[in-house]
């Protein structure tokens, strides 16, 4: 059975994590479809210190090259090259037919979401992490079919669940009546995973509004 797995790991376990500890920005690997063998991954940088990322990352030992693609009002997009084999977490994923779907930083950790073919392979992966001494915590395991359950407005079922719970518990109130930690306790996931789901939900809804606005402008 194919599984969707969410993992939390300290910032120090992945490339550029030390920079997140030292600066006020968030990093997110952009999901993309490679069109050639030498396609480089892309990374979004967002936050107050996003404009300083290029300078800070120039001296990062785990980066081979970095190229600014575009700046946007709240951040920037970079093309980045690194050797996956030099990082134990990425290397353990690359050694198996695992598809990394999402990878983003929070204030104190990375949150990864990937697809893995079976429970047996996940067990072997976790054993591998333990033997390598990696501080990785599996936050949630979901069968692929359940993860693809229909939701509304383009949101996944998990995003919709987190969004509605946050609304119900007063997370969006001017004086918040709950926290990410409390929401995470109810959903049985970490606060980082809650934050990631809410952010994905915001983006999906904002993109839908933008697309609908563009459509309205085209037909008027």
From TrEMBL:
Domain Bacterioopsin transcriptional activator GAF and HTH associated stretches: 12-132
Record-linked Pfam families: BAT, HTH_10
Domain HTH bat-type residues, every copy: 155-206
InterPro entries: BAT_GAF/HTH-assoc, HTH_bacterioopsin, RNA_pol_sigma_r3/r4-like
GO MF entries: DNA binding
Keyword hit for Transcription regulation: yes
Highest taxon listed in the record's lineage: Archaea
Keywords carried by this UniProt record: DNA-binding, Transcription, Transcription regulation
Protein name listed in UniProt: DNA binding domain-containing protein
Organism for this UniProt entry: Haloferax mediterranei (strain ATCC 33500 / DSM 1411 / JCM 8866 / NBRC 14739 / NCIMB 2177 / R-4)
């Amino acid at each position: 059975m194919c599984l969707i797995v969410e993992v939390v790991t300290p910032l120090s376990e992945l490339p550029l994590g030390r920079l997140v500890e030292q600066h006020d920005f968030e990093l997110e690997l952009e999901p993309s479809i490679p069109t050639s063998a030498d396609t480089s991954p892309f990374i979004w940088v967002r936050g107050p210190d996003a404009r300083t990322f290029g300078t800070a990352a120039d001296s990062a030992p785990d980066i081979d090259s970095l190229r600014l693609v575009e700046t946007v009002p709240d951040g920037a997009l970079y093309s980045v090259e690194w050797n996956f084999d030099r990082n134990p977490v990425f290397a353990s994923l690359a050694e198996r037919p695992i598809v990394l779907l999402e990878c983003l930083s929070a204030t104190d950790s990375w949150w990864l979401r990937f697809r893995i073919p079976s429970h047996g392979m996940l067990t072997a992966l976790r054993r591998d992490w333990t033997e390598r001494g990696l501080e990785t915590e599996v936050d949630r395991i979901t069968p692929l079919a359940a993860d693809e359950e229909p939701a509304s407005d383009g949101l996944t079922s998990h995003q919709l669940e987190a969004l509605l719970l946050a609304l119900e518990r007063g997370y969006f109130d001017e004086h918040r009546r709950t926290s990410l930690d409390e929401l995470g306790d109810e959903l049985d996931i970490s606060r980082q995973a809650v934050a990631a789901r809410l952010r994905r939900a915001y983006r999906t809804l904002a993109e839908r509004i933008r697309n609908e606005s563009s459509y309205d402008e085209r037909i008027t």
